[in-house]
Design goal:
Blueprint (H helix, E strand, L loop, with lengths): L16 H29 L6 H32 L7
Helix pairs in contact: 1-2
């Protein structure tokens, strides 16, 4: 059996800023989606006889979802700088 005198490997790929931005945005979208499902669950639990604790959990969930949507909006607009070829601020 012959030993290989050369080793061929695939050169490392460089992830573009656009691709990284898509990945970060996708993760944030999934987080917001999961939070929205939690809010829906809390809403279905909080019927006409909801306890104070259930209402507090619902209010917290809705407020947290609003914050997450605002953060997602910011990430989206920061990401558009990458898509337009402008410098990204960190």
């Amino acid at each position: 059996m012959q030993e290989a005198d050369r080793v061929y490997s695939t050169p490392p790929t460089k992830t573009s800023a656009r691709h990284r931005s898509y990945g970060l945005l996708e993760g944030s979208i999934l987080d917001v989606s999961h939070m929205a499902n939690i809010v829906v669950s809390k809403l279905s639990e909080a019927d006409g006889t909801a306890s104070l604790q259930q209402l507090e959990e619902l209010v917290f969930s809705v407020n947290h979802l609003c914050d997450m949507v605002q953060d997602l909006r910011t990430e989206y607009y920061d990401g558009t700088k990458v898509f337009c070829g402008k410098a990204v601020q960190s």
